[in-house]
Amino acid sequence: EDKVVQSPLSLVVHEGDTVTLNCSYEVTNFRSLLWYKQEKKAPTFLFMLTSSGIEKKSGRLSSILDKKELFSILNITATQTGDSAIYLCAVEGYNNNDMRFGAGTRLTVKP
Amino acid sequence: DAGVIQSPRHEVTEMGQEVTLRCKPISGHDYLFWYRQTMMRGLELLIYFNNNVPIDDSGMPEDRFSAKMPNASFSTLKIQPSEPRDSAVYFCASSPHTGELFFGEGSRLTVL
Description:
Shape of chain A: globular
Low-confidence stretches of chain B: none
Structural class of chain B: mainly beta
Order of helices and strands of chain A: EEEEEEEEEEE
Helix content of chain A: under 10%
Structural class of chain A: mainly beta
Mean pLDDT of chain A: 92
Radius of gyration of chain A: 13 Å
Largest interface: A-B, 22 and 22 residues
Mean pLDDT of chain B: 93
Shape of chain B: globular
Helix content of chain B: under 10%
Largest sheet of chain A: 6 strands, mixed
Oligomer: heterodimer
Number of helices of chain B: 0
Number of strands of chain B: 11
Number of strands of chain A: 11
Number of helices of chain A: 0
């Protein structure tokens, strides 16, 4: 069965810290891995990763995928209180088009 | 575009009542997903449709849950009869193809 495991489940840091969020997966015929940020309401899209070793970057956020070891990391540098959210990892396989989510990492950034 | 539209935003009902949640996907999107989110279980896929056809409903918890998509612009998720353990936020999401999902703002259901 397809599985997505995120760690840590929760994390508390101070502004300016750098954080690394982890996502490991097992999926039949991997197609893509996506990161989402969920604040108060619906998840919003951050990155989609399909190839190993190619870093995706957006401002202070970056992410990379390792298809050999079956994991991805999401890095946030110089964290701000506005980064406080749940970060969700989702994986999609070629065999089906559904999107399986991990449990999420709840990040709290304190001033 | 208005994005994915869900209704109601909040629903409080009593155990045993029927609940119907509604979703209007983004026009032109071929895929529609229903998710349920709770603190304990995170974001769970319930069912998804491709071109109005249910593809995988293995995530639907039990027979009390049913979903339909009578046309490309409308879907419903029904719970009958509802139970307190169904309390959750139910998200609808659509996608033009595989990959990025566009989420609605969710329907928060409380079953007393």
